[in-house]
Every structure is written in structure tokens, then in C-alpha cells.
Amino acid sequence: MNQMFDPTRPDMLRSDLAAAPRRLLIDGAFHDAATGAVLDVIDPATGAVFAHAAAGGAEDIDRAVMAARRAFDDGRWTGTTPAQRQNLLLKLADLIERDAEELALLESMDNGMPFMMARFGGAMGAAGMLRYFAGWATKVTGETIEPSWPGEWLGYTRREPVGVVAAITPWNFPLAMEVGKLSAALAAGCTLVLKPAEQTPLSAVKLGELVCEAGFPDGVVNIVTGTGTEAGAPLVTHPGVDKVSFTGSTVVGQQILRESAATMKRVTLELGGKSPTFILSDADLARAIPAAAQGIFGNAGQVCAAGSRLFVHESVFDRVLEGIVERAQSLRVGAGLEPGTEMGPLVSAVQRDRVQGYIEAGRRAGVSLMTGGGTIGTEGYFIEPTVLIEPGADLSVTREEIFGPVLCAMRFGDDDIDALAARGNDTQYGLSSAIWTRDITAAHKLANRLKAGTVRINGSGPPDPALPLGGYKASGLGRENGRAGLEVFTELKTVTVSLN
């Protein structure tokens, strides 16, 4: 069952949200936006406004960055011991776990995702992320290096926090993305200004309340809700920001790179994808078919690593597509808080219309539609799980990130590994990929040739904070998660000492 909460809780929460707009967290206190402006928060399952949040602007961003700058420069965070930072992150994890039901309800109402996904993939996943990076707070180390100079020398490196971080997060997994950036940055010793997606501000504000309850020093974490134009752009260009960590579209990531160049900000970008899944002739179809379906229909396809291009060997193509179509047609699509919902709505009318536009463009180009293709109902932003057959390699549905439940399925014959990899790599993106085969040699050879930050062979589990995440090519710069995801929030300093 999808519903594992007090059925009266959503109404109580909606009543509380309607009572007053959510506010900005700046320097340890909650404030209205300087202009008094607010954002409408829309339930994607109904299209109705059910809450409001402060619409921060340049003045609010400036105050938040200055607060983070003071908290970094005066030592109230950098002066704490690694164990103290670890303990605060662990306390925040405990609070998130305590309030997991409320956070999941907020995510489901705000984003549309099924409640169970919001609870376990969102809230509990965020708690796990904090606990993982809490462990890294005491393990930020350098190394000793002996120079090849005459005489006796000591050489060593230090990893130091990069400074004030601008964390800009997307709307598809709001809480998980917010906590992912926050936990790594704070473990490294940085301070933070978080700008969540304007479509999904609610979990970020609740996170701010828990940050205060946990006892983080004022100014270490600041949260400014608002639009990309009014809040995001001033944050990226602010001279007090040392690093930008952004997850979102490639187009916006390219803009952030340009705007960060003037002040040489450090930049990490986790961007779009058009990820391939390969099902070879000898694959375990009982596992590969449901995995391929989940890889595109999970979270309504609003996943940067969604397996949106499916390459299937011609000998099993019909069986695979029959299984995926059957799954698409049986999926229970509905509001995230409805019992049994397996796929929720798209996040907004804009996103629904964008996805629908790609489907219509494919139809006009003569692409065969095996299932789906339409909207569902008259309320909310629902689209049917959709499967397109053999779209041309030059079509927009094949080449561009759709970010919706739309699968492009294509056959391949007895191609060699190089030819198959070339088809998978025929995209500007390189974020993720999946391979299904019992031939481990073929699997590794194909994995070696794919230009993708992640290659999954014969399955994968939920996101793991220990596994680095990031992409090749237009899918981004740098990595999140793992040791690599911590080190992007540091600067590497070399120190040499003459012992002569």
C-alpha cells in the first residue's frame, strides 16, 4: 500500500501551510522577502494553489551570502572541530528521520511523487546522506610528499573548505538534492546558501527549521526560496560566493558557467541525460524488463539518469517491448497521496506541455506509438506512460532530454561492441547507462566504451551516497556523493618546509 500515514495529516498540514507563507532562513532567523513577494505553491495532482512561499530577490540573496560569509570568516563553523561538525550532521539526520512522515507529505504534495518514494527515497535517503557525510567530516586529509630537491624537505598537502557555497537544487527530488549538497558542503567546513527550485520550496523551508533545531550556528545554513531569475541569478553572480553547486538542465548549467567566469568561482554541475539501456540477446528478461520500465516510468520519468533510450537485440525485441508495454498500461497513475499510486503527475503545467510537445513532434515525424501518448484526466498534470518505437536518431525525441515518462525503443542486430557503444554515445549527454547480459566479457567491454559517468550492469539499488554521481560531456562537471563529492567543496593547498 502506498498510504502509510495518518489520513487526517495531509488536511492538517494543508491548513497549516495555508495560514501563512513559508519564510526565508537568513542568519539563523526566518524572514519575509524584502519585497514582500510570495510564490504560489501548486499541487501538481490538482493544479490548485495550496500554499505560498517567500519570493526572495537580490536583497535577500545579498543578506544570505553576507551571513554565510561571516559564519565562514569568523570561525563559528570553520573553527569547530571535525567531531563537532560530525555530531551536528548526525543530529540533523535524526531530526529528519523523526519528521520523515511530514517531510514526505510535503514532498508528495509539492512535487507529486508517490508518498512511499518521498518517504524512503526522499526523507530516509536524506537522513542516510547526512550520516554518510558526517563520517567524512573527521576524515578530510592531505598527504605527505617528498620533493626531489637538494637537502632535506617536508612537503605536505592540506584540503581546506572552499568557502561560501551557492547550492541550487532542482524540483524532481527536492529534499534529497538539498540535503546532498548541504551535507557534503558542511562536512567539508563550508557555509551555505541554498536556493531550492521555485516549484518545490516546501521541504527546503522545513529543512531550515530542522537545521535551527539541531543547533547549527547562525549563518552556516541560509535558505532563500524564489525564482531562478530573481534569486538564482543574483546568487550565482554574487562576489561573496566561492563555489556554485547546481543540479538542473544543461542550458542553465551552461549559463552558470558563463556567469561564474568573471569571479572564477568553483563550479560543480550535475546536468541532463539521455541515458541508454542495452538489453542483449542473452539477458535475464525477467529482471531486465521491469528494470527498464522502472528506469523510465519511475518518478514519471523526471529523473536525470532515466533510461530514456532502450536498445534491444532483435531476437528478444518483441518480448521485451511486450513486457514494458504491459507494465506501462498497468501502472497505477494518480496523486502521490492516493493509496496504491505508482506514478504521479509531472511537476507543472509547463513540464506537462513540454513533454506532450515532444510526443506530438515524434508523431508528426511518423514515429510509431506503441502505448500512451496522451494526458490523463482534467485536473493536474498527468501524462500516460509512453513507448515510441524506432524513432530516427536525428529526431528531438531521440536526442533531447524529455524529462517525462517517454521511452524510445530501438532494435540492434549482431553488432560488435564498438558499434553498439557508438549508438549509445550518439548524444551530447553522458550521465548514466545500463547493460543487461549474462556475458560478463561483453558487459565489461561495453562499459569501458560508454562515455557515461555511471554504468550499471544487470541491475542497481537505490542511490547510494558512497557512489560518485556525475556525467561526461554535456551532463556536467565534477561529481557528487562519495569522497569525490566531498572534495569538490575543498581547495588543495601544497606546503613545503626547508629542514636544512
Summarize this structure as a short list of keywords or feature phrases:
Aldehyde Dehydrogenase, Chain A, domain 2, 500 residues, six-stranded mixed sheet, seven-stranded mixed sheet, 40% helix, Aldehyde Dehydrogenase, Chain A, domain 1, 20% strand
Q: What do you see in this structure?
A:
The protein has helices spanning 9-19, 58-73, 82-98, 100-111, 115-136, 174-187, 202-214, 228-237, 250-260, 285-297, 317-330, 349-364, 396-399, 417-425, 440-449, 482-487, and strands at 24-26, 29-31, 38-43, 48-54, 153-161, 164-168, 191-195, 221-223, 243-247, 266-270, 276-279, 309-313, 368-371, 375-376, 382-383, 386-389, 406-412, 429-430, 434-436, 456-457, 472-473, 476-477, 490-498. The chain has 500 residues and is α/β, with parallel strands linked by helices. The protein has two domains: 9-271 and 477-494, Aldehyde Dehydrogenase, Chain A, domain 1, CATH 3.40.605; 276-465, 3-Layer(aba) Sandwich (Aldehyde Dehydrogenase, Chain A, domain 2). Strand 14 (375-376) and strand 15 form a beta hairpin. The longest helix has 22 residues, at 115-136. It is globular. The model has no long low-confidence stretch (mean pLDDT 97).
The count of β-strands is 23
Task: Please summarize the sheet with the most strands.
Answer: 7 strands, mixed
What CATH calls the topology of the largest domain is Aldehyde Dehydrogenase, Chain A, domain 1
CATH homologous superfamily identity of the largest domain: Aldehyde Dehydrogenase, Chain A, domain 1
Note poorly predicted spans: none
> Helical content, roughly?
25-40%
* Tally of alpha and pi helices: 16
Radius of gyration: 23 Å
CATH class of the largest domain: Alpha Beta
Order of neighbouring strands in the sheet with most strands: 13-16-17-12-11-19-20
Number of domains: 2
How far from one another are the termini? 72 Å
The global form is globular
Strand content: 15-25%
State the CATH architecture of the largest domain.
3-Layer(aba) Sandwich
